[in-house]
UniProtKB/TrEMBL annotation:
It comes from the Bacteria. Gene3D superfamilies: 3.40.50.2300. This is Autoinducer 2-binding periplasmic protein LuxP. Residues 57-305 form the Periplasmic binding protein domain. One of its GO terms (cellular component) is cell envelope.
């Protein structure tokens, strides 16, 4: 049965501040502290030997408060329960790169068979990747593609540019021009950068559309509402809101509804989360682009097991995107079961 671990031991949490102080020092010094910290955490937990018949995969998630990531985590747990002798160990980095680095070191010390990693920062993965490969542990990156993806490392996810392109196409099909605001995720994550780029590239040659606002809301619904409230209070007229995910779009919808502007604004998200689909049913969210978290979750486990069992696997597995609107919602939900 899969188990969930919400973080490292209290001892490790207390040591995080010292790790941060060492980030400007030589890499070996930082690695030494991380190694000792992880070892102490392992001893504190009892240092029990793992059952050799059980395949153990550590799963590093950036944020357990992110709706899409939690749904994907639940899909992984459900899929793992159908496998023989497979144990998943989940950890939450709370969007902290240093904390995630420590969690990966702890997995290495625990001698897990594989690691599935959704990175906090896609530009800061090389130290983790190199350490995992050096330890002889199979590595699969999931959902957020790192800039550093050497031989022997797999990736499962979607082509992020497509999400932005699909959002932009929908907006253009259902309007004749207007002012656009883009609510972005964390700009240390490739998904936010490329989804935004997909929108910008599509409208580049369409002078009737103007992107007048762009701001990050950190993937969070509450922040999406704050960003939208600020835009409304600025007095700028926004006809189309394109959000990098559903949660931020739902936050924008709350602000637009409170200001009496929702009926005059097109709002488009990404992910097709349960809350996003419900908003489409109610006519609040115009469209979302489905990011198939369930297939990504299964694909990551399959890729990790293939690596562990030394069977062939693709280096990159692309999971296709799909536009969901009120017109095809019933068909989409039927396919999802």
């Amino acid at each position: 049965m899969p188990i969930t671990t919400s973080g490292l031991t209290t001892l490790f949490q207390q040591s995080t501040k010292y790790i941060k102080q060492l980030m400007n020092k030589p890499k070996k010094a930082v690695q030494g502290v991380l190694f000792i910290t992880g070892l102490m955490a392992l001893v504190a937990c009892g240092g029990e030997e793992a059952d050799s018949n059980v395949t153990r995969i550590g799963v590093a998630i950036p944020n357990f408060d992110d709706t899409f990531l939690v749904n994907m985590k639940d899909s992984m747990s459900a899929y793992a329960e159908k496998q023989d002798n497979l144990e998943l160990i989940f950890v939450d980095a709370k969007e902290d790169t240093v904390k995630q680095l420590g969690q990966i070191q702890n997995f290495i010390i625990q001698q897990v068979d594989g690691i599935i990693l959704v990175p906090v920062n896609t530009d800061a993965t090389q130290p983790m990747t190199d350490d995992i490969l050096k330890a002889g542990i199979e590595l699969v990156y999931l959902n957020r593609r790192p800039t550093y993806l050497p031989d022997g490392v797999a990736y499962v996810g979607s082509e992020e540019l497509r999400f932005g392109e699909e959002q932009a196409k929908y907006a253009a099909k259902h309007s004749e021009g207007g002012n656009i605001g883009i609510i972005m995720g964390m700009m240390t994550v490739e998904a936010a950068i490329l989804r935004t780029q997909g929108v910008e590239d599509f409208f580049k040659e369409k002078p009737e559309y103007n992107i007048i606002r762009k701001q990050t809301a950190l993937w969070q619904r509450s922040q999406g509402m704050v960003v939208m409230e600020n835009w409304i209070n600025s007095g700028d007229k926004l006809d189309i809101i394109i959000s990098n995910n559903d949660d931020m779009a739902l936050g924008a919808i709350q602000a637009l509804r409170a200001a009496g502007k929702l009926d005059d604004t097109i709002v488009i998200g990404v992910d097709a989360t349960p809350d996003g689909l419900m908003a489409i049913k109610k006519g609040a969210l115009d469209a979302t682009v489905f990011q198939d978290g369930r297939s990504q979750a299964r694909g990551a486990i399959d890729a990790a097991l293939s690596g562990i069992n030394k069977t062939p696997r693709d280096k990159i597995t692309w999971i296709p995107a799909e536009l969901v609107t009120k017109d095809n919602l019933a068909e989409f939900e039927a396919k999802q079961g």
